[in-house]
Structure formats: structure tokens, C-alpha cells
Amino acid sequence: MIYVILWITGITGILVFSTMIYFIVKYRHRGGVGAIHSHGNNTLEVVWTTIPVLIFLGLAIYGNEMWGRMRMQKAPADALQVAVVGEQFGWNVRYPGPDGKLGKMDSHKIGKDNPFGIDPNDPDGRDDFTTYNDLVFPVNRPVQLHLSSKDVIHAFYVPEFRLYQDMVPGRVYDFVWFRADSVGSFQLACNQLCGQGHYKMFGKLAVVPDSEYEAWAKGKAPSATASLSSSAEDVATVNR
Ligand SMILES: [Cu+2]
């Protein structure tokens, strides 16, 4: 799409600038030649309005089609499932435990005390663990994200991944997935102006070899949000 747009704008630019230079030379000031007064030309106005409208409409339909196709590409079945929930001003992150299954998220259950909207009785979630502003991903392994927000609109943005997705409260976005192909340290930035602390809303993000990821995950205690406690009070202390 970028190349299509580059061609259209490139050709338009060349045509416009050639015409402009031609006119500048042809209608330059010469002694004894008076200026012509023009009140415009309705036919020309209609033509040069209609053409861009059609081009923009075409690009919008084309872009929507491409976006639809991108979203149709489902994450591979072995993708690591990770939930990320934005809040003012930080990132709640939830990883599956040894069973490899992430507790189901329900946007209706998301609240101050339950940022992930997890049902405490869901057995898949019992061994999940959580972090705050700390993300570790294994290299060369697909990662499927479950994105949401607790309060206002935030956006998951990692420029190096070419990955950007707004997170609107009340919705869980689970079509975003990626495969990082080299190790490194990156920053997860919030890309929606979400309040006074927006500037400091960033997460530490590391892409590491698989074994290093496994060791890191093993060292994390299971989140008690997923434990037997269903009292909101207990859940709150755990997620802080
Ligand atoms: Cu934010």
C-alpha cells in the first residue's frame, strides 16, 4: 500500500511541479503584457475535486481490505498467549503458567481490583503469573496478545515490531500476534495520550532465547488472582 501511495503522490507531484514551472516561465512578467483576470472554471473545479475523491475512496477500500486480510491471519496454535492490560499509568502483564494456558479474559469482569477480567474459578488461570511493566518474550516464537484497558484508551506500541494497537476499555483484542526474530531490549510505549502520567507509561520489554524465557517464567510465582481467593480485597493486594 505504501508503494501504491508513493506512486500516486510521486506522479501527482511531478505533474503539479512541471505545470507550475511551465506556468512560471510562460506567464513571467514582460513589459507591455497585461495580466488576465480569471474568475475560475467550474468544470475544472469539479474535475480536480472528483479525481482525488475517487483516489481516496479507492485507497480507503483497498486499505480496509488489506487490514481485513492481516486480521484474518490467525496466530499459530503454539503461540505463547500473553495478556496486556493498560492502566493509568502502567502495564499489567499476565503469562500462562506451566499448563501453557492463559485464564480466559472477560472485559465485563475488568475492574480496579481485577485488571485482567479473570474469572477466579477458571482452572486455566490458576497457575498464571503476572508482572508489572516487565515483558519478556522468547525469540522466534509466535506470541499472541490479549490486549485491553482498565480505564481509558491506551495503545500497545513497539516501533521495532511494527506493532500498534489501541486498547479501548470494555474490549479484549486477541487478533494481535507477532514473532520477534532477534533478541534485544525494547520499550513498550503507550501511544495514546492517556492522562498526566502518559509520558512515563512504558514497559521494559526483552526478547530472549527460549531457554532464558523458560527460566524467567519458572522463577515467577503464580498470581494469586488465579488462586482460590475470590475476595476482591485479596485480588487487589496481589495485583499491586
Ligand atoms: Cu496510556
Explained architecture:
The strands form 2 sheets. The chain has a 5-stranded mixed sheet, with no helix packed on it. Strands 4-10-9-6-7 form a 5-stranded mixed sheet, covered by helices on one side. Helix content is 30%, strand content 24%. The chain has a domain at 80-239: Cupredoxins -  blue copper proteins (Immunoglobulin-like). With 240 residues, the protein is an alpha+beta fold. It binds copper (II) ion. The site of copper (II) ion has 7 residues, from loops.
CATH architecture verdict of the domain at 80-239: Sandwich
What is the chain-wise order of helices and strands? HHEEEEEEEEEEHH
Q: Write out the distinct hetero groups bound to the structure.
A: copper (II) ion
CATH class of the domain at 80-239: Mainly Beta
Percent of residues in beta strands?
15-25%
What's the CATH H-level homologous superfamily of the domain at 80-239? Cupredoxins -  blue copper proteins
Put the structure in a nutshell.
The chain is about 30% helix and about 25% strand. It has about 240 residues and is α+β, with helices and mostly antiparallel strands.
List keywords for this structure.
4 helices; Immunoglobulin-like; disordered C terminus; five-stranded mixed β-sheet; 240 residues; alpha+beta; binds copper (II) ion; 24% strand
